[in-house]
TrEMBL record:
Organism: Flavobacterium weaverense
Gene3D superfamilies in alphabetical order: NAD(P)-binding Rossmann-like Domain
Similarity section: Belongs to the NAD(P)-dependent epimerase/dehydratase family.
InterPro entries from the UniProt entry: Epimerase_deHydtase (IPR001509), NAD(P)-bd_dom_sf (IPR036291)
Name of the protein: Nucleoside-diphosphate-sugar epimerase
Pfam family, one: Epimerase
Domain NAD-dependent epimerase/dehydratase positions: 6-178
């Protein structure tokens, strides 16, 4: 059997590493991974060096992609994500847009029949507090200051206008190995939140390899479905309980009222019916998260939970804007 050549970018990332493990388990593909070299990426990828071809490089540098040739399927996950993407817009554009353009050009030149599978984001739809049910055909309208979303929209357009065959998956909130950041407070508590686990998300891309004829030139919303939905408030309350942080008792104005994203994918079943990727529920996610927290750690955190929450509150940009009565920032975060 002639094995198909798979390219996986961003292989050391949360979803990328899950995709790599799933690809290896199938044992029917020749795999090339492209990633930024770092201590973390070397630690994750080098143990597989006898089973895959590893190319370290900067995707925004076209010459670094020169070794990428004769590819049948490209799963493109490499990206700079928030909050870094929003704090450093030039970097986000350099990697997310220019890097995608470089990869497309390289594939067009040396792998013209390659099928590109691109990971976009629910952020392209912008604030959906008022109308939380999202369809692929809805207007793309990023929230103010969401540079990550603008790079994804531009990259989507470039791919659609390229000579390659492609599919685009707009990922819901991917929860797993999630790090607490200031974004925690950017999201309104009444946000309709649909998640997907990294392993389910990876499975959609991996299973999609054999479904090119059904995915070709189409865009899909990728989310976990009805069993992976909750309000953001409920999601945080369950998360706090797992980590021993007690009640979600932050002061008023700690969380923004608007200008974020997320929602429920009204047409999310369209992708599921083709690639059959959903296995995890919201309960499964919380079970996995709970298993990561030892009883000793949970007890220790519960003892210092109030100082921890005070420290977290200091990260809240909406709260700081309210305290300082900054008119520009108040208008950005609050109704």
């Amino acid at each position: 059997m002639i094995k198909k050549n798979i390219l996986l970018t961003g292989a050391s990332g949360t979803v990328g590493f899950e995709a790599l493990k799933q690809l290896l388990a199938l044992d029917r593909y020749t795999i090339t991974v492209f990633d930024q070299e770092s201590e973390a990426s070397r630690e994750k990828l080098l143990p597989f060096k006898d089973k895959i071809t590893i190319v370290f490089g900067d995707i925004s540098n076209f010459d670094d992609l020169d070794a990428i040739r004769n590819i049948d399927f490209a799963i493109h996950l490499a990206a700079v994500i928030p909050p870094v993407a929003d704090d450093f817009p030039p970097l986000a554009k350099k990697v997310n847009l220019n890097g995608t353009q470089n990869l497309v050009k390289q594939l067009e030149k040396h792998s013209p029949t390659a099928f590109m599978m691109f990971s976009s984001s629910i952020s392209v739809y912008g604030d959906r507090i008022v109308d939380p049910y999202i369809n692929v055909g809805d207007q793309l309208q990023p929230s103010e200051g969401d540079y990550y979303a603008t790079t994804k929209i531009a990259a989507e357009e470039y791919i659609r206008n390229s000579k390659l065959d492609y599919t685009i998956f707009r990922l819901a909130a991917i929860m797993g190995n999630h790090k607490i950041s200031k974004l925690m407070f950017h999201q309104p508590l009444n946000t309709a939140l649909e998640i997907a686990t990294p392993r389910d998300t990876a499975r959609a891309f991996v299973n999609g390899i054999e479904k090119q004829h059904l995915l070709s030139k189409r865009i899909f919303n990728l989310g976990g479905g009805e069993s992976c939905r909750a309000s953001y408030k409920v999601f945080l309350e369950r998360s706090f309980a797992i980590f021993g942080l007690g009640k979600l008792n932050f002061p008023e104005h700690a969380f923004a009222d608007k200008n974020f994203h997320c929602g429920y994918y009204a047409d999310g079943d369209d992708l599921e019916e083709i690639v059959h990727f959903r296995q995890d529920t919201l309960d499964d996610y919380f079970k996995m998260e709970s298993e990561k927290v030892s009883s000793v750690r949970k007890i220790a955190t519960s003892i210092i939970k109030e100082p921890v929450k005070w420290f977290l509150l200091k990260k809240s940009e909406p709260y700081q804007a309210f305290k300082q009565q900054d008119p520009i920032q108040m208008k950005h975060y609050f109704n």
